[in-house]
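User: Predict the full complex structure for these chains.
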Amino acid sequence: MLELHGGLDDMTKASPAVQPNMNDVILDIRHLKKYYPVYKGVFKKVTGHVKAVDDVSLYVRRGETLGLVGESGCGKTTLGKCIVRLQSPTSGEMRFRYGEGGMRDILSLNAKEGFDVRKKIQIVFQDPYSSLNPVKTIYEAFDEPLRVHRMGSRAQRKEIIAQMLEVVNLRSDYMYRYPHEFSGGQRQRISIARALCIKPELIVCDEPVSALDVSIQAQVLNLMKDLQQQMNLSYVFIAHDLSVVEYMSDRIAVMYLGQVVELATSTSLYRTPRHPYTEALLSAVPTPELDAVRERIVLKGDVPSPINPPSGCRFHPRCSKCQEICRVEMPQLRKVSGTEDHYVACHLADTESVPQEARMEL
Amino acid sequence: MNSESDLILKVDNLQTQFHLSRRVVKAVNGVSFQMKRGRTLGVVGESGCGKSVTAHSIVQLLPKMGRIVDGSITYYSSNGAVELSKLKRNGSEMRAIRGKEIGMIFQDPMASLNPVFTIGHQIAENITQHEKISRAAAMERAVEMLTMLGIPQASTRIKDYPHQFSGGMKQRAMIALAMVCNPKLLIADEPTTALDVTIQAQILELMKEMQHKYGTSIILITHNMGIVADMADDIAVMYMGRIVEFGTVRQVLGSPRHPYTRALLQSVPVLGIAKGERLKTIRGSTPDPSDMPEGCEFAPRCDFATKQCKTVPADTDLGGGHRVRCWNCMGGLTT
Amino acid sequence: MVTKAVKSSLALRNWEKLRRNKLAMIGFCIVAFMILCAVCAPLLTPYSPTDIDLGSRIKPPSLSHPLGTDKLGRDVLSRLLYGARVSILIGLSGALGGAVIGTIIGCISGYFGGWFDKVMLRVSEIFMTFPQIILVLILVVYFGQGLMNLIFIFSISGWPGTYRLVRGKFFSLREENYVEACRAYGIGELSIMFRHILPNTFSPVIVTVTLSTAGYILAESGLSFLGLGVPSGIPTWGNIINSAKAIDVISNNPWLWLPPGLAISLFVLGVNFFGDGLRDVLDPNQ
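Assistant: Here is the predicted structure of the three-chain assembly.
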């Protein structure tokens, strides 16, 4: 069998709402910004910036799933890609626990260290059709990452690949096949296996089931939960489907126009959403229950452009509870009074006056 | 029990096949249902189950290699019954019905709006196609329609091209295009799949409003059980070209009798689901449509399959119009 | 344990698809037959293509000379067979040379973008503003006649087509998720470029190579006919036709120009059929 990662911390597993022990934090993001310049005219003058991720602070604990949810254009995918360092952030800090040294800033590593960290953070993409190279067999696609990270001899590597395929419930001899021979659900499981084969500790899952059929979604979601338990993996689970995120995550960050507007344990978020946007989002999810007595909040209009986000609270033009202060002052993410782990960025919510990061000092 | 005048559409034993170079795919394999005026029929199923092909067969918008080989589709217009499957695909009678009597909304608003014409032009063209009306009057109606659908400053936005509209606005424009001739039947093929949840909620509300106002009948095709529960009066669950379960929302969602319907309902996470609870999965994947299993198509993936399932199950009426295609539907399934 | 399984192969699958494509198979058979004949030339004809036999000049086809002899008494059939070697060599090498240059520049340009891409794009545009035959004529005058020169000239005048094709492919492929996945593993840029993206551009490049082979064989014939191609001592299809420049030869001695003319047409037709078929087979959307 494969050597699995260290034992489970039963405490955190059982009650994710517990005040975090900071030694558990595996990834800590602070004030992360990712701006894309907008060019215009013949001389390619920079006329503005798309603020895809605008001052986001989050942390992920070992063995937990952090859900990122929001509508298209809210910056959740960009944030995910920044975590895997497929995009380099414009500014901010990102610290990751690896090696002996505890938390280290992974945005300012030298080439060698940067390469080592790549092993620890992996990504699974949304589209199972474009995430596997059509001209490479599964074996070829898996072998190279193992080789560049010097994981075992040729025979050992083959063994690892075979085991990984079995872990995701596929036959080990499928490794000699090409991607076109697999269905969407199988491809997604292969993508997961590929991400797992170099033993990462954190996996960013960018809408891993959105492109799959309903009956296949369940297979993949169950598999991901099992793997998390077996290997004590941490997930950053990105999706637009609230019910899937709610099912998968321990904590959820709701994003709107590049910012986190609410951060809470998934039960707390579902039972007592504090931000009007979260409320609207939750109420908009259609559920297959008869006689469901939920009042649907239908938001007006569309998501504004992230090039010129509204002043003050970015949600105010669509908010039914909008007040004068919302138009002027941008709300900070603050802890909701009387809760353990529920943060919201809304002027109208009953919050403590301490900003979020005050508690985050390690 | 239905009086004929109540019906708007009757599909009987519809069979649509695709003739590919070396094989024949039975995309729709004996589908029968009736639709009453002013009601919404939700057609649910996974990709490849034939739900879209059924809808496209009704308006004869099939690709070249697809053809209706058997069955009848009767549309009850105000001038009496019309047998749609007998009409020429692109004949004048079919064209007169498409757009005027039966409106359509598709999944991808990007692909359904022509990028080189303004929104107003496209809506007005649909009116002038079917009614003797001046261009200016048609434009006026288009503005009226867009205003009703909640597009601000419709009289100026109507001169915009599709790329100037956001996703939700485009889908509104599509609805305007489909509804402007006041069709009796609206076919909506995954109308909100490409949209965000909040925009989806807007569009669904709009469709309800329009239905309320005009008494339109809607065929709503979707893979999302939640949308069906919210929108539909009747549900048809399709699997591999057949309707496996048909009934009112209460019958099908309240007491699903087909194992496939049950599995579908239990495999999606619902808000507020317990964390430890595992989702129910359906074994394997959908079979290759050109090589379907003998007997019940779902049998190889079904937990309750018996020897009897080697023969195609009969369409059993459980009373009250609740029809199920399963040998085990009479005795209650235990889950 | 790893169980031994039936290996499936992309090549095998494409070969199966190709076999079902009638036109491509006809093309393939024609090309294969003609190449085989050229390779086996010494077995098919006893004469040397360059042996002059002034005793039997301009003889019509007979048993000893199935396609007759030319002005210098050389056997037309042997010249045709040996000429096929040179003509096909020039066509194929020219096309391959252009493809290799174009692919390498296209890779770098498409993957990294930046100033290199901008410069190369303009250079390729300059190349493409000249009609290729005029460009070749200028280069022939500059570099002089000769077999290797001609191959070289075809290569450097033919790269922009492949360059633009590969560059365009790279632009779209570098955004694919599997490329991002490679980056997430920390696999090096060169490896991503040449081992992961490049193989995906091969299908259209192969099609271009086949089709431009046909073009270069025609170009060689044209140049040789004008006396600007391969030196007249070396038999090529173009050089054989060169002897039919006089009007009386065209009307009185059809065996001198008809066989090489037919050979050129047949080969080009075969290559084009094959290339078109290949395009259909290698198109993943089919």
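Residues 112-182 of chain B form one domain.
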